């Protein structure tokens, strides 16, 4: 890989969720981290990664499995949240590589969960919320969800929606579409 390449990590997380409020004593926790490495200069998605994370204070509900496809048994074999944060920093240089997500949910969820667990925040300060960048680039009045944005951009939804690695891959395609228009910040 070219040492001068403008790389960007595109991140999407899935977290435990319920149809209504969390059951007593449970909190929403990251159970999957999807990461796609993008070369902004070449306009290419270089690599797709997935980390499963074992929840410590919640369980994967049937609603969550229906949405994400992730089962309790699958995430039970995942890394602890602290191990996942360390792996991001070590394997993907997340502390020094700029990153993007679709909306602020992913950044806020990491901030909340790091604060609750004492895990070291794995990302640097350079975060871009891709949703307003896309909205401005395409002259839209309201900020679309990822699937709607793919339709607007004329791009296919690849993989399963609400699957961290697939969503990161699709968001990366949207980032590259904005960059190709000369509008990536």
Describe this structure in words.
This protein is α/β, with parallel strands linked by helices and 185 residues long. Helices cover 38% and strands 18% of the residues. It has helices at residues 62-68, 72-76, 81-92, 105-117, 130-137, 146-153, 164-180; strands spanning 7-15, 30-39, 44-52, 99-101, 127-129. The chain is globular and about 45 Å long.
Largest sheet: 5 strands, mixed
Shape: globular
**Terminal residue distance:** 23 Å
What fraction strand? 15-25%
What structural class is derived from the secondary structure elements?
alpha/beta
Uncertain segments are none
**Helical element count?**
7
Gyration radius (Cα, Å) is 16 Å
Order of helices and strands: EEEHHHEHEHHH
Q: Give the mean pLDDT.
A: 96
Specify the helix fraction band. 25-40%
Strand order of the largest sheet: 3-2-1-4-5
Number of strands: 5
Brief overview, please?
The chain is about 40% helix and about 20% strand.
Any chance you could write out the topology, listing elements then pairs?
Blueprint: E1 7-15, E2 30-39, E3 44-52, H1 62-68, H2 72-76, H3 81-92, E4 99-101, H4 105-117, E5 127-129, H5 130-137, H6 146-153, H7 164-180
Parallel strand pairs: 1-4, 4-5
Antiparallel strand pairs: 1-2, 2-3
